[in-house]
User: Fold these one by one.
Assistant:
Number 1:
Amino acid sequence: MITLLDYGAGNVRSVINAIEKLGETVRVAEGPRDILAAEKLVFPGVGNFGSMIHILNQKQYMDPLQTYLKADRPFLGICLGLHALFEASEEAPGLKGLGIFKGHARKFHIQQSVPHIGWNGIRVKQPSRLFDGIKGDEKFYFVHSYYVEPADDGVVLTFTDYDIEFTSSIQRGNILATQFHPEKSGASGQKILSNFIQEHRQVVVPKIHSNKTKLAKRIIACLDVRANDHGDLVVTKGDQYDVREDGAVRNLGKPVELAQRYYQEGSDEITFLNITGFRDFPLEDMPMLAVLRQTSKTVFVPLTIGGGIRDYTDKNGRHYTALAVANEYFRSGADKISIGSDAVIIAEQYLQTGQMTGQSSIEQISRIYGNQAVVVSIDPRRVYVDSPQAVRHKVISTQLPGPNGEKFCWFQCTIKGGREGRDLDAVTLAQACEQLGAGEILLNCIDRDGTNMGFDLELIQTVKDAVGIPVIASSGAGCVEHFQAVFQETTVESALAAGIFHRREVPIIDVKKFLQGKVEIRS
Ligand code: 1PR
């Protein structure tokens, strides 16, 4: 029996699912006594160090946790569950961690994008039972902006490289903790979890050692989901956002089944976009929550969900906050949420007033769950102009002239699934959202969506150059070469596609095979 410490934030559902998949029972600690009574304790965590410590104090978990850990009883910390073991974190100065290990969590100050999101390797420093059956060249899923710096090198179990070398797991006696998320790291992560659960695994050092680990470029399958005209929830796909064919909503399959297929085929992440979320409120549109719950039972890579994340008042006058919607999504198995229309409205207000209110969905959700959990989905389209001075937006000189030979364009933001253009450009939106606390940009492109013409590389690099957070390139993939182009001609961290995967024109496996040796990927 595994006792799971749920301090109320983040995606504990996927940890429970991953452990249960291994045939083990999970009991969620409901009070301090459950911690002391645990046979094996798992402390998963995403989010913000400060809010975690506040909750641990509030629930009176600090003392029992220290007692448990000082007695060297079996413990696995994940991500924030690793940071909690140290004295403090730069994420919340002045607040004390558990102090089981001397040292601090530091913020990344590096050239590459922060948060560090995606699949990276490990360099093993000591033998461990966690590595039974691990070859050594596997990649694991990371998502964090802070890393621990132990005062005692002897506790370092693995290092990982991301501009700098950082500690990606620790081990001392029965206390184990990883910066990466085994529950989101596919089959390799399942092995790590199973090795923690089964105490009698061999203590080994993996055979393969690398001198330096590399973050893989991610390939993401995207499922645009909505109810069709019969009320069934289907995966659909538009051409430049028009999802109807001969008047009916295109039906390309069932969301859970397709997500499972993409997981098996090697998708590094899966994104669900509830494309009518701007008009149907997600908490009334419960099937999406059911889709997440079901998917997270068998799909052990990160799940992002978008659509309808905003404040809402229902017909009975009951008010829901965007945070409440996000809470439901996280508790149903989402690792990240994606905000579309609301992000544009928030950014417009922020740019107009110059004030951060602290109340917007982006700010509230990133404060509790951490900025790595907040993706902003942008739906831009090109607007051609004659000169850079023609508008007050970020204008680029383009290699793809407009219909009247225009050599300049800007990228206009839209809301409500592309239905409404706004007086805001994609670059300014991305920068404003980063300042407000977004951790990643999902950059769609209405002009390219469903066209198979390839990604809009100009749009992508323009936005990427403007922000320090990771960017997901989306829209237009039509063949394997398009993925090579987006990774070699821009600096984005990941590429997303939909139509070619749904129609089985180009399976994910083929994309990965083609990129092997050309681009760092998770094989
Ligand atoms: O505005 O917060 O409720 O979120 C709604 C979300 O739904 C947004 O993320 C928005 O991008 C998305 N959305 C709204 N309407 C549509 C539509 O298609 N009519 N889908 C839509 C956007 C774009 C991509 C697509 C790629 C790859 N879909 O996600 O999957 O373009 O497609 P391709 O590889 O076939 O070219 P809110």
Note: The pocket of 1PR is lined by residues 222, 224, 237-238, 241, 243, 273, 275, 277-278, 306-309, 338-342, 377, 379, 417, 444, 449-450, 474-477, 497-499 (CB under 6 Å).
Number 2:
Amino acid sequence: MTGTLYLVPTPIGNLGDISRRCVETLNAVDFIAAEDTRVSLKLLNHLGLKKSLVSYHEHNKKESGPRILERLLAGQSCALVTDAGCPAISDPGEDLVRLCAGSGVPVCALPGPCAAIVALSVSALSTGRFAFEGFLPAQKKERKARLEALRTEERTMIFYEAPHHLRAALADLLAAFGPDRTVSLCRELTKLHEEVLRLTLGEASAYYAENEPRGEYVLVVGGCAPRQAAVSLEQAASLARALVEGGIRTKEAVRQVAEQTGVSKNALYAAVVDGS
Ligand code: SAM
């Protein structure tokens, strides 16, 4: 009989957040696959557990994954842990789950800490519908394209971000979504210096121009306001012209109205320019 792969969430800061079931599972399995064995060893020492650890991370997953699978197929049980939080969410655990599922090895996910969900719940933004976006692409061009595709996303969006990328990420979010979009910057969750700043993107950029980003962040960004239904090109053009008369540049007015109404930006631009 094959063994089971257990996905065991670990604390994202506060060690008290590990559940009794997670401890029992770590204690019961034949071996533990860890993203960083040194980090997991500290947790196991804290829990008073002694277990055989193997390394499974982004840079060795192609070799390590099949070795873990082989042991599972031979009947051993394995707990997968990452440095913090829920395995398989924005970490290589995803590949091991796919490998096991494809080979008929049972996968059992235990509930527990996940930075995205902790941040969403404390964000004070709408939680009814949300889109988890993980890390934005590192390359500027791809990052911009990703954000452009999200410009009219109406669901609350969740992004993971490292402190050294925070300013660049805020600048790109600001360019894509405008300065008035709400953002909850959730930092060092469950840790001593936990902080949640609920700002607009304009305010957040100004704040971090003055203050050094420190620690781990989850950015929870409010979705785009729902589009007004069935606005004609004529009506959209007169809305845009009113904005232009109020002092907004034509291109920006067209962008805003197209976003709110769903009318094509090019058609709207042509209508505004031709009619003016
Ligand atoms: N699988 C983990 C989870 O779902 O919780 C996330 C792993 S991902 C490699 C690490 C990212 O999670 C960090 O860069 C940060 O964006 C976020 N994160 C983890 N711990 C956090 C914390 N205590 N406070 C804020 N963000 C955190």
Note: DSSP finds eleven helices and ten strands in the chain.
Number 3:
Amino acid sequence: MSTVRNLIFILGDQLTWSLSSLEAADPGRDIILMCEVIEEATYAHHHKLKMALIFSAMRHFAIELREKGFDVRYVHLDDLDNTGSFTGELDRTVAAISPKRIIVTEASEWRVLQAMKPWKSAFGLPVEIRPDTRFLVSKQDFQTWTQSRRALTMEYFYRDMRRRTGLLMNGKDPEGGRWNFDADNRKPAQADLFRPTHPRFPPDAVTRDVLDLVERTFPRNMGSTAQFSFAVTRSDAQKAADAFVRDFLPDFGKTQDAMLKEEPFLNHALLSFYINIGLLDPLEICRMAERAYREGHAPLNSVEGFIRQIIGWREYIRGIYWLKMPGYEKSNIFDAKRPLPDFFWTGETDMACVSSVIKQTMKHAYAHHIQRLMVVGNFSMLSGLDPYAVHEWYLAVYADAFEWVELPNVIGMSQFADGGFMSSKPYAASGAYIARMSNYCGGCRYDVSKKSGKDACPFNALYWDFIVRNADSLSTNHRLAQIYSSWDRMRPETRKAYRNSASTFLKKLDDGERV
Ligand code: FAD
Ligand code: DLZ
Ligand code: SF4
């Protein structure tokens, strides 16, 4: 007769003490299962740093659970009897310990949640799938919010979140009299030798074992674990959050959209990886940021901008994911089919901006929002790359990439592949935007001021080619009316030069020539 009451299964992005599956857990009667499995390690070509972060944080969380008295069954990736899948490992554990019930917090990704559904009948046991309460808005509440709207404008969702959390509110009014201070942001940045550096966390023995495992098992995946400096425990992640609020938040707004090739991190938080795997609580971080504002340590434009990213964008993106899955991943309004060029895996291109962002991604498994959106994302959309392939790339290469957050950001926001379900117009831009917001163009073999011809910045001709090529889908968009009338007013030779330059560039791309 089994004495085990519940088998609690914890996934790699559920490393949170207040996790719903751990509610009322009893170390005397319950057993916890955590497992590293090849199925999760290979469903995307994960960056080595991403895998190392997840495995090491999982192992540290298991140690902490044991310190609290829990019996944790932890399966290592290279254990000889590891079956390689969540279902296989649950099956093995159920056979070994005969629990009365399985408890799990719902998976953050559709793919894994689907895999959970047959467990009840497969194991002949009650399986309790609890909601993930680490988000502010439940899937159901988000759906209800969408039902009363014609357009799913993030800004209105965000205002509701401000009211719901009370963050930066003065009674019923927004602090400072406005909901959004973005107009004070969006500035270019200067290199600054005195800018503080983000904290780095040297690997301990547990992490070093993981780094060896990842290098040994996935030698061909992107990146090198030599650069590993992530926090892997809640207490170190909290130190990273403290450092952000103290050193970077005051200037966060000012440089939010800026790009500097020497400074990949600028004043960004570098917290998404910790929030997404559960080491940090999103609302707690927003409260820390608000406190910094109330105590006069950080200005409103920075604090409002930061809080909007988390209670606005992050929650909204998750809502969209669950609203649109399955099927959203196949969205392709422009019928774009081009495969990813090889330089997505090497950074070897003459376009200095693209090269810099990809090389930075290879080194750190990180790029900030504008680099993801306006450099690599913009290039992908303008060049007609297959949005599904673009999605697979983003899911692989960033340490914070989990499908629920990556997919709507890529398919909806950056590729406009959903035809405008999320955004009212595509984030398409010519080289002028990149020149204004970065210092990439100075060192580029292309000339951003040239519109067409072999030395012209490719973004310039690709931009117009994209606009014209996709007129069927875009020309009725009133936010693009001015763009289409500019095109109509252009001299025929100018139009022809743009189209020819774009087609020469795209042919080189298709032929695998260096661009
Ligand atoms: P900061 O710029 O300092 O922002 C603070 C926090 O706000 C972040 O930590 C994050 O939690 C949140 N946030 C900001 N923007 C978004 C957003 N658009 N969606 C969700 N949360 C947001 N974010 C991921 O977490 N995982 C992804 O896989 C991911 N893929 C992206 C792909 C594309 C094409 C684009 C355009 C954006 C993507 N983002 C993704 C959103 C954003 O780029 C990252 O959250 C951010 O760069 C993380 O770095 P940071 O912690 O320094 O963020
Ligand atoms: C991303 C990832 C990787 C690489 N490996 C594991 C793993 O071995 N075990 C695990 O529990 N989680 C892993 N993860 C994170 C999961 O993919 C993530 O928890 C689910 O995708 C959530 O739906
Ligand atoms: Fe990028 Fe064009 Fe500037 Fe070169 S000139 S860095 S390709 S925007």
Note: The first strand starts at residue 6 and ends at 9.
